[in-house]
Amino acid sequence: MKRLRLFGFAVPMAALVAVLVAVFAGGAAGGAGNHLIRWDLIQLAGGPAPATITLSPGGKDSALANDGSKITLSGSGTFRSNPGNPQSVSGGGSWWTFSPTGSQTGTGTYEVTGFVSFADAPGGLPFPPFQDNIVGDNSAALAGLAVLTIAYSDGSEGVLTVSCDLPTTPASFPLFEGITASKGPIGYWNRLAPTGGPTFGPNENRTAFRVLH
Fold first, then answer.
1. 95: domain range?
2. How many domains does the chain fold into?
């Protein structure tokens, strides 16, 4: 079993035991088929008892290009989970780009224009200590990797890769938590690891997939 961590910080072992049993008995929440999947770039907050951490939309994720320049995205959307077939997609968000020295070089919005692929992986979101504020159902959480095409408001196009790692995902699925992206000829291939937490910042670079139906 891989390290017992989620979103960049340790999770108590006791909170994961029941989830481990369910995950390895039933597999990942999505599985095969044509499920409607929601993706989000998320943020964390303190949660009411018995949960200690809530997961909500509205976060920001970043990745670096070869020279250290950075892209930051916010956003959410949906797609269907049957790779190899034409897909209707929805969603988008905002983008910001920065020079290697940190100066902002651009900003705007982006729209998801196409589906490339999605692969799910085993994993679960234990309650407690976590509470889902995205769809309100911890059992809908899904680990995996999605690749989507996007169009930026300045006329450039690119690819967005969203990766979500859950605490009970086994070591044979070495997922990362966060995004990578391209914008025109620039590949922002070096994802930034999760930072901050429910009560301290910057609270960034976290993602989520949820099975809607």
1. 5-211
2. 1
